Amino acid sequence: MFRKIIEPRAPLAFTFDGRPCSAAPGDSVAAALLRAGIGAFRTSAPGGRPRGPHCLMGACFDCLVTIDGIANRQGCMVEVAEGMAVQSQHGLRGLPGGCRE
Amino acid sequence: MSARPFLAAGDLAPAYDLAVVGAGPAGLAAATAAAGAGASTLVIDEAAGPGGQMYRAITRIDPEVFRFLGPDYWGGLALARAFQASGAGYAPGATAWSLAGDGSGLELGVALGGEARLLRARRVILATGALERPMPVPGWTLPGVMMAGAGQIALKSAGLVPEGQVVLAGCGPLLYLLATQLLAAGARVAALLDTTDPGQWRKAAPHLPAFLGSGYLLKGLRLLFKLETSVRVVRGVTGLQALGDGRVQQVRFRTARGWSAMAADLLFLHQGMAPEVHLAGAAGCGLEWNERQRAFQPVLEGDGRTTVPGISVAGDGAGIGGAAVAELSGRLAALDALDAIGALDPGRARLREPLRQSLRRLRRCRPLLDILYRPADAFRVPADDETTVCRCEEVRAGQIRAAIALGVPGPNQLKTFLRCGMGPCQGRLCALTVTEMLAAARRADPQAVGGFRLRAPVKPVTLGALASLPAGPDAYFAVTGELPPG
Predict the structure, then answer these.
(1) How many other β-carbons are positioned within 10 Å of the β-carbon of residue B238?
(2) How far is it, in rounded angstroms, from Cα B62 to Cα B76?
(3) CB atoms within 10 A of CB B258
(4) Per-residue model confidence as pLDDT tens digits over A7-44
(5) SS3 for A2?
(6) How many Å apart are CA B312 and CA B338, to the nearest integer?
(7) Which end of chain B is flanked by fewer CB atoms within 10 Å, N or C?
(8) pLDDT digit string (tens) for B51-65?
(9) How far is Cα B178 from Cα B351, in angstroms, rounded to an integer?
(10) What integer pLDDT is reported at residue B278 of this predicted model?
(11) How many cross-chain Cβ pairs, A to B, lie less than 8 Å apart?
(12) Nearest C-alpha of chain A: how many angstroms from B324?
């Protein structure tokens, strides 16, 4: 899908749904996932349809992922950090621990 | 010597002479000019480094990638370096989520590092830039269908080059620029499907003399020549669809000879830019429809003053003009702000008239570009009922047309019927389409139709960040029913 012009000398390791991935320092989560060949980051809340980055500039919110347990992060606006755990999102997000009446 | 960027909202000063939102060409030029004159200045920007989208990652890009991007990009380095040496405060990775004026000045909501603060500013310059105009075609929500700007950002910020069958579709200078940049970086562009309406040439022709005087001619010709000689360009495209199972795999397109199909791994769409007006609109600045550019922009006078005292807009957020126009308008807005707070010395005051003249000259290129690359009606008002218009809430064109037929008075009522525009993007990817659909159905002026009401927070802010806002005595009393201790 995308290749990197220059391979990073000291890549950062992170995971997407448990799968090991790597990124260059400064890469956004979205860029690193695209480079790993991952096009769909989530399924949409209304219809469960696959979605991935559309604008890469923080406007479309289609690249939402869960990062280190925090849902609805914009993958294109967050830089990869060593050891980061990124997860795909499916449908609507709930509150951690669920909603209490 | 550059100042250390702010990492948390709590580290920001409570008040500034000038707050600039956005660190693209307009914001950098404005902040550099204001800080250079001694005004306490803060730049708030979403990105990790200065440059905006045009000069994205300019201060940290790898030289191996830098060289593919061309002289228009390289020019941003001097601007970013001047900003870094200007003494202006800089808050990268920050969100400006609200702006409001009262009798005593302006209050700007900023979130940074998980904290939020309401800053006071004597003047605010909004340099929020532009968004790409949405291109709602069937299948545009499939993974692998991206905006042309996303292709540029991937290249600039991460050195990513598209692989496989890469198809570009749409119209306008950015699309052609992306094609040449991708080629330079070694990508294989399978085709550029050009949706420019050939009939627009005749309408644009009267503006050719003005265009010739703007200095953009050679640049444009070079770009088009390079494209023509190295990419398969299909002209007169009047229909477009992306198809695939889970991601884009095929692109179908219609020309005078009927429908054709080609394999695609990535599809980059582009049909022009529109000002990002969310913060201006939420602050109560008057907006008006620009018929030639087919978008809403702030009502401005002088060197960028909006209808709200103290707030100015510079750069593409004021109407699409490109990076050179943005830089000049940013400097002019800063000089105007200095003037307003009594900090404009005679030497700087004398700069204003020559800057205004340069700005007028550069703007002469726009009428031709705006008219020639006016997106065709079929790509602004989707004819196919199944086409998704609101990506967040998955509202289709047919649903919107049905609601319009019921007599929905305007975009804001349409929201309550269909949730169209109520998702996380806050209408950034559907507002123009909704306004144009209503205008087309009613044969009404888009100005009269209006747009979605814009409200703070203009970008999502976490409750945790809001909870970190310092609580004054009033807030303390409102929650506890008691006066604060001491």
Answers:
(1) 13
(2) 15
(3) 7
(4) 899 999 999 999 999 999 999 999 999 999 999 999 99
(5) strand
(6) 12
(7) C
(8) 999 999 999 988 888
(9) 35
(10) 98
(11) 126
(12) 21
Q: What length is written for chain A? A: 101
Q: How far apart are CA B209 and CA B205, in angstroms?
A: 8
**Above 60 in pLDDT, residue A100?**
no
- Closest to B138 (Cα-Cα) out of B435, B327, B359, B398: B398
- The beta strand positions in B336-451, using DSSP E, are 388-390, 395-396
Contacts of A54 in chain B (CB under 8 A): 140-141, 145-147, 150, 391, 429
- Is the Cβ of A75 closer than 8 Å to some Cβ of chain B? no
Q: What is the DSSP string of B34-80?
A: HHHTT--EEEE-SSSSSSTTTTTTTTT--HHHHTTS-HHHHTHHHHH
Helices and strands (H, E) in chain A, number of each type: 1, 9
pLDDT > 70? residue A99:
no
CATH number at A15-90: 3.10.20.440
Residue B96: which of B114, B80, B116 has the closest Cα? B116
Q: How far is CA B242 from the centre of its chain?
A: 25
Q: Give, in order, the Cα–Cα distances in Å from B479 to each of B77, B79, B157, B467, B482.
A: 49, 47, 45, 13, 8
Cβ neighbours of residue A54 closer than 8 Å, sequence gap 6 or more: A60, A62, A63, B140, B141, B145, B146, B147, B150, B391, B429
* Residue B295 · residue B133 · CB < 8 Å: yes
Task: Tell me what the pLDDT averaged over chain B comes to.
Answer: 95
State the Cα–Cα distance between residues B122 and B114, nearest whole angstrom. 25
Q: Which residue of B has its CA nearest to A51?
A: B143
CA separation, residue B401 to residues B188, B294, B387, B407, B442 (Å): 39, 20, 12, 10, 11
Residue contact B160–A40, C-beta within 8 A: no
The ipTM, to two decimals, is 0.96
pTM (global) more than 0.90: yes
Instruction: Give the residue from B197, B157, B201, B154 showing the smallest Cα distance to B178.
Output: B154
Looking at chain B, how many residues does it have?
486
Q: What is the pLDDT of residues B430-465, one digit of tens each?
A: 999 999 999 999 999 999 999 999 999 999 999 999
* Cα B69 from chain centroid (whole Å): 20
What are the sequence ranges of the domains in chain A? 15-90
Task: Report angle CA B161, B165, B169 to the nearest 5 degrees.
Answer: 90
Asked if B142's CB is within 8 angstroms of A31's CB, the reply is no
Which residues touch A87 (CB under 8 Å, ≥6 apart)? A16, A17, A65, A66, A67
Please compute Rg for chain B using Cα positions: 23
Q: What angle do CA B406, B451, B414 make, to 5 degrees?
A: 25
Burial of B103: CB neighbours in 10 Å, binned 0-12, 13-18, 19+: exposed
Q: Which of B65, B131, B157 sits opposite A5 (nearest CB)?
A: B65
CA distance B299 to B313: 9
